[in-house]
Specification:
Blueprint: H1 2-65, E1 74-81, E2 87-93, H2 103-109, E3 114-119, E4 122-129, E5 136-142, E6 145-151, E7 157-166, H3 172-180, E8 182-185, H4 186-197
Parallel strand pairs: 1-4
Antiparallel strand pairs: 1-2, 3-4, 5-6, 5-8, 6-7
This protein binds zinc ion.
Zinc ion binds next to loops.
Length: 198
């Protein structure tokens, strides 16, 4: 009789041990699952960060649109001449009425000029102009000397200066060419050509 109770006692202890073992095993695997879940969460976080970055970029783009012309900024006027294809740049102080304008406001104020580039410290406006730029000259003979004429927008010529170079010492070919008129571009070419005749 005593032996029987002994056996039942051992069986109960074994069953309890198995149950406790199962419980501990489950607890352990639950912890692992939770860790996996945490890892998944951090992986989900990354696309959110990218989204946030995109949002930040969009905000910086829209603040760029809100940039205003500062009072000390430089205004560059570019004229593109249709006949000679030269571009002349003029540097000017920013007119007071343009200070604090955004790019869009400036564009609305302009007639004929286009905003080529815009930043608070430098604005470039560009415009197509008919005719030739002011860097074109014509050499002709006038009262026995070589004279320099400036070619205007409408292709007419205005006397710029009469040089001291007399026709007396010029070759016949030079005289013929000067009678027809010699077209010159730029101060540099003008000076070097005149030096050749001296
Ligand atoms: Zn030109």
């Amino acid at each position: 009789m005593k032996k029987w109770i002994y056996i039942v006692g051992i069986i109960v202890i074994v069953i309890v041990a198995i149950l406790v073992g199962c419980y501990l095993f489950r607890k352990d695997s639950n912890l692992k699952e939770q860790e996996n879940f945490k890892m998944n969460n951090t992986m989900v976080d990354e696309p959110n960060e990218i989204k946030n970055n995109i949002l930040a970029n969009e905000i910086s783009v829209s603040t760029q649109d809100k940039e205003k012309i500062s009072p000390n900024s430089v205004l560059i006027l570019k004229k593109q001449y249709e006949e000679c294809f030269h571009t002349i740049r003029e540097y000017a102080k920013m007119p007071e009425e343009y200070v604090n304008l955004t790019k869009q406001e400036l564009e609305e104020k302009q007639e004929g000029w286009q905003v080529e580039s815009f930043s608070p410290n430098e604005v470039i406006l560009i415009k197509q102009v008919s005719g030739v730029c002011n860097q074109h000259y014509m050499l002709r003979l006038k009262d026995g000397v070589i004279a320099v004429y400036q070619i205007q927008d409408d292709n007419t010529e205005i006397l710029k200066e009469e040089t001291g170079i007399s026709t007396e010492y010029l070759t016949e070919i030079d005289k013929i060419r000067l009678e027809e008129g010699i077209r010159i571009y730029g101060e540099e070419e003008l000076n070097s050509t005149l030096e050749d005749y001296e």
